[in-house]
Amino acid sequence: MEPEAPAAAAHPLSSDPLTAIRRTSALDTVRARISLAVDLGLLAPGERLPNVRATASALGVGEITVRRAFGALEREGVVHRRPGRNGGTFIADRPRHHTVAETAAYREDSARVRRLIDERTVLEAGFGHFAALRVDGGTLAGLDRAIAAMDDATTWAEFHAADRGFHSTVVRGAGLPDACAMYEQVTGELYRYFLPYSMDYLRVSNQEHKDIRAALAAQDGPLAARLLSAHAAELHRTMYMGLSDRAEDR
């Protein structure tokens, strides 16, 4: 009788039902993401948040969840809401810090997030190389639309949507449909941890997209791979794990 084959190891991209973020309700993830962005200085006092619909789309939750989260954050002193035509939801002038206990879930999952960033970095480099070899007018036009949308974005939610469009265009341009599924799985998991960023930072980061587009147009695969890899790896510095010391000092 032949020995039994060892059980296959779980794929590293498999969803882990025990991660801290998966034990947190949708309402509390919205509270935590906005509160953590405030704690880290990614959102400044007085900064206006996107409207309910845009925030719901960017954070992958329902509009009712966002409304309830905004109400809770106002009671917790993180945001304040103004009625009227020029109203909306704004970061409080003197926001309270460390008031949302659920931010701990994001810190608990920091090792998982770093792994997801590394996986995305590897995939982005490969897609960039092959997209440069196979670039066509349709791909470049799609990149131009995404770049223009990011230049015109007035909120992090609008920028986030255009940013996803840019990277999806690069991925499709590589012509590797089977690998696309892996990329979508990695980014889908990573976007669960997405935090709002300041528009000043995002506008500067769009220059990196323009440099990537230029490398693809020049069909310079190695350069496109390096630029995309560095662009993805930057998340190690800018996401909340890299800023945790700042948060603890507040």
From TrEMBL:
Q: Which InterPro entries match?
A: GntR_C, TF_FadR/GntR_C, Tscrpt_reg_HTH_GntR, WH-like_DNA-bd_sf, WH_DNA-bd_sf
Could you tell me which species this protein originates from? Streptomyces doudnae
Q: Which SMART domains match?
A: FCD, HTH_GNTR
| A molecular function GO annotation | DNA binding
Q: Which UniProt keywords apply?
A: DNA-binding, Transcription, Transcription regulation
HTH gntR-type domain span? 24-94
Q: What is this protein called?
A: FCD domain-containing protein
The highest taxon in the source lineage is: Bacteria
In the UniProt record, does the keyword Isomerase occur?
no
